[in-house]
């Protein structure tokens, strides 16, 4: 029973770390990257739709991205959604067939803002991990009547080790993203 709780915890924490890495990828660095546009929601016929479902994205140059919509009627909506996206600073233009997005050079000040943003996202991810840990600890405490206290104590130590391991994974991803952001 304890093993089931720990396996479920590991699975949930791994998903949380992956979500944090995806969230880090949405913060732009000096290069244009299709992943930055993963969270862009386009108002397509009245319903918010992820950009990736409406168009293909290509990266012809380091600071530009070409977005080819599957439905040409969505061009204006895609262009507006990219322009309205916070923390992107992109300048989209459309020529009737494609949307061309040119990313401006990052200033040192803007890089520092992005580092702060990424650190905030990293801290949010760690808070989420601690929430998962707390819930799992409550589940372990509920098992106290079925198994001995020694088993629960061992389970809690394993839970702490699992939590520490996943927090370290987030810290590593955070450090990689920070160096990527500060690289000129």
Automatic annotation (TrEMBL):
Q: Which Pfam families match?
A: RRF (PF01765)
- Residue ranges of the Ribosome recycling factor domain? 21-182
Q: Which domain of life is it from?
A: Bacteria
Keyword Nucleotide-binding among record annotations: no
Which UniProt key words apply to this protein? Answer: Cytoplasm, Protein biosynthesis
Where in the cell is the protein located?
Answer: Cytoplasm
* Keyword Cytoplasm found: yes
Family membership noted in the UniProt record? Belongs to the RRF family.
This chain's function reads:
Responsible for the release of ribosomes from messenger RNA at the termination of protein biosynthesis. May increase the efficiency of translation by recycling ribosomes from one round of translation to another.
Please state what the protein is called. Answer: Ribosome-recycling factor
Name the species this protein comes from.
Answer: Microbacterium murale
The organism that produces this protein has a lineage beginning with: Bacteria, Bacillati, Actinomycetota, Actinomycetes, Micrococcales
Report which gene this protein is encoded by: frr
